[in-house]
Amino acid sequence: MSVRRFIAAATPLLAALAVAVAAPQADATGPADLPFASATTVGLHNTYDPAAFPFLAQALDTGTGMIELDAWTDTVTKEWKVSHSNPLGNANNCVTASSPAQLYTGGANKNLETCLDDIRVWLGAHPGAGPLVVKLELKGGFAGNRGMGPAQLDSLIAAHLGSTVFRPADLLAKSGGGSYATLDDAARAGNWPSRAALAGRVLVDVIPGTVEEQNPFDTLHTDVEYARYLRDLAAAGRTAEAQVFPVVHGAAAGDPRGQYSETSIRPWFVVFDGDAAAYLGGIDTGWYDARHYLLVMTDAQNVAPAISATDPTAEQARARAVQLAAAHASIVSSDWRHLPEVQSQVLPRG
Length: 350
Description:
Elements: H1 3-27, E1 39-44, H2 56-61, E2 66-74, E3 79-82, H3 112-125, E4 132-138, H4 150-161, H5 168-172, H6 183-188, E5 202-208, H7 210-213, H8 222-235, E6 244-249, E7 271-275, H9 276-279, H10 286-290, E8 294-298, H11 314-326, E9 331-334, H12 340-343, E10 346-348
Parallel strand pairs: 1-9, 2-4, 4-5, 5-6, 6-7, 7-8, 8-9
Antiparallel strand pairs: 1-10, 2-3
């Protein structure tokens, strides 16, 4: 065979080999390139607890993907108190900081706005960090009839977190102009920005509190109240005022939004939160991932075989995070306070 004929015959094979070698490189992406809803991170439960961290900033230093704050509406003082069980007082690790150095000094036990200030100051010193989910549990729910409802919470968040907040309106906005009609439409269209685009940003979500859920006299829970408010803002063309994503609380099979008799609020839920063991007990969690909904799996340590809630080995915690990422969790939540190498993980979801 002549050299010319050999080259002609070999060219298609060489081209195919070149494509095969180049393809993985072209498709390779890092964690920062993943859309926000296509990644799994690890989060911290009850991050405000001084027994967990002397200062809230120390929790953020772990690189965690989520922190949790428990808040109460003090309708006498009109203050949002942060504590686990005291509705009239603060018991937390938030301090009054206006500079990064002040995040690790001074008296704690401050109101919610101070906790938000600490987050803003910390992010200012770590612009490449995040995105960070701030999970608010309203222990006793809103008190809208006493001036502490969704609008007042939004005003507080906007005043203290400012432009760091990734709002429902940001998810609704289309890149070429205009917006999706509902959060459900936007999520299912995959309109989440990349993690890189959300660096230094915060997504705030809110769940009903344990006290609220057990109160037989409370007939309007946080999830319904905020979703109604968000729906009505959208109808009035004022979605930009909303700072929070409402959450469907509790693991359930099928579409758990079916529990809401008001069908008009269902499309305003794209964040779901429940027990990890319950989700892995037969629920189709791929349903959430396929629709690009966020899924927070709590008490990750209790998935069989159970591991320590606070001090598993790094290998145990990492393996559990990998397991729940494969099960389509967006956030794997526990109290693994001493494992920054695990808290800072970012895994592909599913």
